[in-house]
Amino acid sequence: MKACIFDLDGVLVDTAKYHFVAWKRLANDLGVSFTEHDNEQLKGLSRDASLAYILNKGKISASASEKEVWKEQKNSWYLELVNAMPEDEVLPNCKELLHNLKQHNVKIGLGSASKNAKLILDRVNITKYFDAIIDGTVTSKSKPDPEVFLLGAQALGTHTNECIVFEDALSGVKAAKTGGFFTVGIGEPAVLSEADVVLPNLMTLNYEELKKIFTEN
Ligand code: B16
Ligand code: MG
After folding, report:
1. pLDDT means per 10 residues in the chain (217 residues)?
2. Catalytic annotation, residues
3. What's the predicted TM-score (pTM) here?
4. Architecture field, domain 16-82
């Protein structure tokens, strides 16, 4: 176990609730209903793919410029919420785990679809732990394509089989498994059944515990 690559939204910070509020506001403005179930489908997807899901649900066809305006609008509502987010919204044991992995010379990467990833890492003051940041500004393919995690492993100088990926989204778990990574799902076992191990959150984890999980599974 030489490296760990973390998804951001839903693994390190609970920003999924802000994506939900902002997408729901946009969807409702467009006359489309938007439920928690819909939000679950959008987890890990890019902004483009998320808007496409909503337009498809509402059977709305739109021009490229209309789509740009709607994505901008959603993002500005989302950023209003993120900018008001207190630093302690980082999820429990996240900082402790990152610190502990660093002490054991485990390389740490971010593998997120978000174009806002750097801003969010800064907001909760965890940027300093990351040796590589691969986010929506550098990827060209959306999860479940493994690109984001493969670029992460490459940037960290590790092979995929020495690297653990942490993911809360089904699309992200699929991406990590397709890339050949040992995958820890964060969330519900019923939703993330393709992961090697599923935990409810990061709370029980430290370097020793992770090494045990990695070698025993
Ligand atoms: P943005 P992750 C993903 O982040 C979110 O799960 C997903 O809901 C969002 O649509 C996507 O980022 C794009 O985010 O609009 O901020 O660029 O889970 O891959 O860290
Ligand atoms: Mg996520």
Report:
1. 96 94 97 94 90 97 98 98 91 97 98 95 96 96 96 98 96 97 96 96 96 92
2. 7, 9
3. 0.92
4. Orthogonal Bundle (1.10)
